[in-house]
Amino acid sequence: MGDDEEEYHGSATLVAGGVEAEVEAHLAGRFDPLVGAYRWVGRVSADPAADAAYRSGDTRVLLRTPGGHEGAGTLTETNVWGGYRVVGTGAPPFAVPEVAPDED
Asked: Which tens digits make up the pLDDT trace of 1-25?
């Protein structure tokens, strides 16, 4: 992950196909000035709920991490470990520093 990105490594609750599952997540993100929004990417560990949702074509997920953070994303592909790559735009499922618009 890049130097200007925030990261999260740890447990997360994945909501896929209406089913909640506990997964391990490795996520990172940054503000993308070209899109004008926060973009985040990463991977989540394998889970039967994610497998069923992905196979049915319902790739929309919600990820929640401890501390009350959550973000909506999409499962994009499987990885070599049997888990999934996930991408999202908007609020990430992990804490990020808040910056006031009038600050540099």
From this structure: 445 679 999 999 999 988 999 999 9
Q: How far apart are CA 56 and CA 52, in angstroms?
A: 6
Q: Report pLDDT digits (tens) over 20-33.
A: 999 999 999 999 99
Which residues have CB under 8 Å from 10's CB, separation 6+?
24, 25, 65, 66
Tell me the two tokens of residue 22: 């506990």
Statement: the pTM of the whole predicted model exceeds 0.70: yes
**Largest CA-CA distance found in the chain, in angstroms, rounded:** 46
Phi and psi (nearest 5°) for 60?
A: -75, 135
> Which residues, 6+ apart, have CB-to-CB distance to 17 below 8 Å?
49, 52, 53, 56, 58
Q: CA–CA separation, 102 vs 22, rounded Å? A: 39
